[in-house]
């Protein structure tokens, strides 16, 4: 079992420092060329891999140009264009509805506030944070996806289970200047080493400060279940 730093703030700083060294080029992996494409890609990424989304959006973004075209597209046709994406029927509805709102209420521009973004169909705080950070250069929170949830619980940074509460706690301990990068570092480490089912603790740069380290710890703090 690793030994965390004395405070959660100190633990968070240690995690950021080590992961930055391990993943110096960490950044968003979704492909997009404008704010609307970013918004759509993030909506599609819910419970779906970024790799799959990037394959699907390559032809999607070539077919539809601007929110007006998504807004007037038949929902069945849009769903068919997304049929390799998880929950593609629902996501097609979200995209069409969100684009209708963007056209009707925002002059065809993706809004730049948390409240306006979360009023769009299919957009929760996580999606809104991504769009604000990477589309508008506005950082007012921490994106909490499944990797961030898993790693922060395993590393003893939070005991919360709901993304909203995890974000609130992380914002108190992660240095302000790292709110955006913290998510990307967690995602890269979650994919490469700290996977959901079989983390490679023997090759982890955080093992000595991780209270969930497999082998020494009996419990996976992410799930609360025994290893």
TrEMBL record:
Keywords: 4Fe-4S, DNA damage, DNA repair, DNA-binding, Endonuclease, Glycosidase, Hydrolase, Iron, Iron-sulfur, Lyase, Metal-binding, Nuclease. One of its GO terms (molecular function) is 4 iron, 4 sulfur cluster binding. InterPro entries: DNA_glycosylase, Endonuclease3_FeS-loop_motif, HhH-GPD_domain, HhH_base_excis_C, HhH_motif, Nth. [4Fe-4S] cluster binds at residues 194, 201, 204, 210. Residues 44-192 form the HhH-GPD domain. It catalyses: 2'-deoxyribonucleotide-(2'-deoxyribose 5'-phosphate)-2'-deoxyribonucleotide-DNA = a 3'-end 2'-deoxyribonucleotide-(2,3-dehydro-2,3-deoxyribose 5'-phosphate)-DNA + a 5'-end 5'-phospho-2'-deoxyribonucleoside-DNA + H(+); Hydrolyzes mismatched double-stranded DNA and polynucleotides, releasing free thymine. GO terms for biological process: base-excision repair, AP site formation. DNA repair enzyme that has both DNA N-glycosylase activity and AP-lyase activity. The DNA N-glycosylase activity releases various damaged pyrimidines from DNA by cleaving the N-glycosidic bond, leaving an AP (apurinic/apyrimidinic) site. The AP-lyase activity cleaves the phosphodiester bond 3' to the AP site by a beta-elimination, leaving a 3'-terminal unsaturated sugar and a product with a terminal 5'-phosphate. Belongs to the Nth/MutY family. PANTHER family: A/G-SPECIFIC ADENINE GLYCOSYLASE/ENDONUCLEASE III, ENDONUCLEASE III. This is Endonuclease III. The gene is nth.
């Amino acid at each position: 079992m690793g030994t965390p730093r004395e405070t959660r703030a100190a633990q968070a700083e240690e995690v950021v420092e080590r992961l930055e060294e391990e993943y110096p080029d960490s950044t968003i992996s979704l492909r997009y060329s404008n704010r609307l494409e970013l918004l759509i890609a993030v909506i599609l990424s819910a419970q779906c891999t970024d790799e799959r989304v990037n394959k699907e959006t390559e032809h999607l973004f070539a077919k539809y140009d601007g929110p007006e075209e998504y807004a007037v597209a038949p929902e069945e046709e849009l769903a068919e264009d997304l049929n390799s994406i998880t929950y593609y029927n629902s996501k097609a509805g979200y995209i069409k509805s969100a684009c209708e709102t963007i056209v009707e209420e925002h002059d065809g521009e993706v809004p730049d506030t948390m409240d306006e973004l979360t009023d769009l169909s299919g957009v929760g705080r996580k999606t809104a944070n991504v769009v604000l950070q990477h589309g508008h250069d506005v950082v007012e929170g921490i994106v909490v996806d499944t990797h961030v949830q898993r790693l922060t619980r395993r590393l003893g940074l939070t005991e919360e289970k709901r993304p909203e509460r995890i974000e609130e706690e992380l914002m108190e301990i992660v240095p302000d200047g790292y709110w955006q990068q913290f998510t990307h570092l967690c995602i890269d480490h979650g994919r490469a080493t700290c996977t959901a089912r079989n983390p490679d603790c023997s090759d982890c740069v955080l093992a000595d400060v991780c209270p969930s380290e497999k082998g020494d710890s009996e419990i996976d703090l992410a799930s609360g279940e025994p290893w």
